[in-house]
Amino acid sequence: MKILIVKLSSLGDVVHAMPAVQDLQAALPGAQIDWVVESAFAPLLRQCAGVARVIECNLRRWRHAPFSADTRSAWQSFRAELNLSAYDRVIDLQGLSKSALVAYMARLAPGGLRVAMAARTEGSSYEPPTRWVAHQVVDLPLHIGALERSRLLCAKAMGYPLSSSFSFGLTPQKAPKLSLAQTVGPTSDALPVVALLIGSSRADKQWPIGHWQSLSKRIRADGYALAIAHGNDEEERQAQAIVQGIDHALVWPRLGLHAMVDALAACAGAIGVDSGLSHIAVALGLSHVQVYNFDTAWRTGPHGHACQCSVFASPHPSIEQVWQAWNSVRLRHGLI
Questions:
Q1: CB distance 13 to 146 below 8 Å
Q2: Per-residue pLDDT tens over the stretch 6-45
Q3: Low-confidence stretches of the chain (pLDDT beneath 50)
Q4: What are phi and psi of 283, to 5 degrees?
Q5: CA distance linking residue 111 with residue 174, whole number of Å
Q6: CA dihedral sign of residues 124, 256, 241, 220
Q7: Which CATH number characterizes residue 273's domain?
């Protein structure tokens, strides 16, 4: 049995789809599961148990220069790699025109099927072409979380019952000293590290810098070292402002996705906004608090793990709310 997952982006959405692979492997031992994803997120899937082959594409980049020689060459290479295998099932977990195009291009084995969602679910994007190219469409509840949506779609596509438990299958490569000696400082080797994941591609998901600094002082007073992740110059500037005047609190270098997974895995816990890195912390099973300025945690927030929770308030949660949530997850994880 060969199965192709089509979930191209974004980082958080890719993380939320990873448990579906673990379900497929448990229900169909020996199945080959390949995944088509944007190249930026491929390093994450190479650390996901059960993914046999990661097929990289760059639709986001190619669409800016669709007729250039470089794009034509890259497109041809992508199509050739996509068609190396013939699939018994091609499952579109994204539900957009671009994922429908990829699903349509994939080569089917005799009797193979393309499977997609029948309609939009609450809070998620959906475009009709995903349904037009599918041989089988799957009805899903309107009100369903992002993680459950992918799991249920795969379960219905392949005809197996869905377990109440799940796993992300994210396996770090064991680089525990990266987050300590190299970034918090050699004098902090004995201190557990809490990662602060302050960045988001959307400004309206961020938490005030002053709140981060006040929270950092409380965490530091509890005996933790602090490390702050960033992905661009503005986030780095904000991170430097947060750690100013706080000992054993430094800014991580700008890490690639593979190294970021390893660095987070070495931490005692994390606190972050609704972002891809925060969802990775969830997948790693860290003690984690996720900060929401919108009431969308039911769809993308952590659940099913006693040591993880979300905090929502508008326009944003208070320092006290986040601090209380952090103490609660630490208590459940035995860190207090």
A1: yes
A2: 999 999 999 999 999 999 999 999 999 999 999 999 999 9
A3: 176-181, 183-187
A4: -60, -30
A5: 42
A6: positive
A7: 3.40.50.2000
